[in-house]
Design a protein that fits this description.
- By secondary structure, the chain is of the alpha+beta class.
- The protein contains 9 helices and 15 strands.
- Helix 3 packs across helix 5.
């Protein structure tokens, strides 16, 4: 049953900053020998240049987040509805970085915007703290509901918590291929990321991972792998968020929505009139709609450059918000995330000279990175999930050619941001609705 809102989510004003620079691609001998490998690394997706990514407009989030959004737009998704979870991607890469060493680890840290492993650990601690604060919010609500029931037993009624937010990790090894995770690595990721470790036979590995994914996303994402029989290890992050609006929306039924191409289509809309953070100038109109548990959903019409600064200048006003209900799902599985990291200088982790010895007893490299993300909103609230899987193999297969992949009324293309509020808010989900 939907919990009643009584607190107002904090406004995100200061957001993570990062600085990314490119590194030269690496190549070298195959594991266990000095023979030069002739394997060519995957080229970046066509139509995406390094300058287009590194010069991404400043949204106000970390450089990694800004550039990921820009890259996916440049890679062919600018004219379609899509969503991505930068946080899930970074959490999965944190697992990889904790199991890497040498140049491989240095490239990962630089791409993520961290100056050291200690700084990365500290960042992940803030992620877990955000989860704890979310849980504390609803624990306090339940406590107050119980106290209310003691004084007004006739008016009180039991409520079952429907809100949830977690960021969880797991690592998986293939029992039928050589090698296993080193205990020191498992101890490290258990301490830093609360990661669980599993193993499965080759024929059962994909199903085992998918069952874990289905459970950790409450069925929102049933699975992420089709086949993993040739995969030595899989590093997986799952993010799940479900919470209600502080003030509910009312259904409006189907209304016209003008797509980016100018076509008018029908979408189910909802409306809410309440006090919330609002900003408008000649280029931008935005509203930050509070959700329970210290989360906000920011809807943006027009230009979203400098979003953090504009949010900091937003004023608390009575706003009539009319937006379409969102139901968007995206799969990134065509080397899009691999090519993004290569643009940022992460080359070595995808070659036969990848340095993952602290992680595994046999040489491994990253073969692919997959993410599935889904965001759903209705008049009651938001439910969203993302899963990122890093596929690791004994050798990196020859890649194929990558595919290119005050009145606020969002009845035209808009973007959205789901933020976990705090001193350094995290971008949980970004997305756009253009059709």
């Amino acid at each position: 049953m939907k919990l009643k809102a009584f607190l107002c989510a904090g406004l995100a004003a200061l957001l993570l900053l990062g600085c990314l620079t490119g590194c030269q691609p690496a190549s070298g001998p195959e594991p266990g020998g000095s023979k030069e490998t002739g394997r060519q690394s995957d080229p970046p997706a066509p139509a995406v240049s390094l300058s287009a990514v590194t010069n991404a407009k400043a949204l106000g989030f970390s450089a990694f987040d800004n550039q990921l959004v820009e890259y996916l737009k440049q890679a062919g998704r600018a004219d379609e509805n899509f969503t991505v979870s930068p946080l899930s991607f970074k959490a999965a890469l944190t697992l990889a970085a904790l199991g890497a060493e040498g140049e491989t680890q240095a490239q990962l840290l630089e791409a993520l915007g961290f100056r050291s492993v200690e700084e990365m650990r500290a960042w992940y601690a803030t992620v877990l703290a955000g989860v704890d604060r979310f849980d504390a919010f609803f624990t306090e609500m339940e406590k107050e509901a119980e106290e209310f029931a003691e004084y007004f037993p006739d008016a009180a009624h039991s409520q079952e918590r429907s809100a949830a937010y977690w960021v969880v990790n797991s690592v998986w090894s293939n029992q039928d291929l050589p090698g296993e995770f080193r205990q020191s690595f498992l101890d490290e990721i258990a301490k830093t990321c609360y990661a669980e470790a599993y193993s499965a036979k080759a024929a059962e590995l994909a199903n085992a991972v998918n069952a874990w994914v289905n459970e950790k996303t409450n069925g929102l994402i049933p699975g992420i792998l089709d086949d993993a029989s040739d995969t030595s290890a899989v590093l997986v992050n799952a993010l799940y968020l479900k919470t209600g609006w502080e003030d509910g929306f009312a259904k409006l039924g189907d209304r016209d929505f003008t797509t980016r191409s100018g076509e008018k289509i029908q979408k189910p809309f909802m409306e809410q009139t309440s006090h919330m953070a609002y900003y408008k100038d000649e280029q931008t109109q935005l509203v930050s709609v509070p959700l329970q548990g210290g989360v906000s959903m920011v809807f943006v019409l027009g230009e979203d450059t400098g979003l953090a600064d504009k949010l900091s200048r937003a004023e608390y006003k009575l706003v009539d918000v009319t937006v379409p209900m969102i139901d968007v799902e995206t799969t990134l599985n065509k080397k899009e995330l691999v090519n993004y990291l290569k643009l940022l200088g992460c080359e070595k982790m995808f070659t036969d000279t990848a340095e993952f010895d602290p992680m595994y007893t046999d040489p491994l490299c990253v073969a692919d990175i997959i993410q599935k993300a889904k965001v759903h909103t209705d008049e009651e609230g938001l439910e969203a999930a993302a899963v990122t899987a890093i596929m690791m193999e004994p050798t990196c297969a020859e890649p194929g050619e990558p595919e290119i992949p005050e009145i606020f009324c969002a009845d035209q293309p808009f973007s959205f941001y789901v933020l976990k509020n705090g001193t350094s808010p995290e971008l949980l989900f970004w997305g756009q609705i253009v059709e």
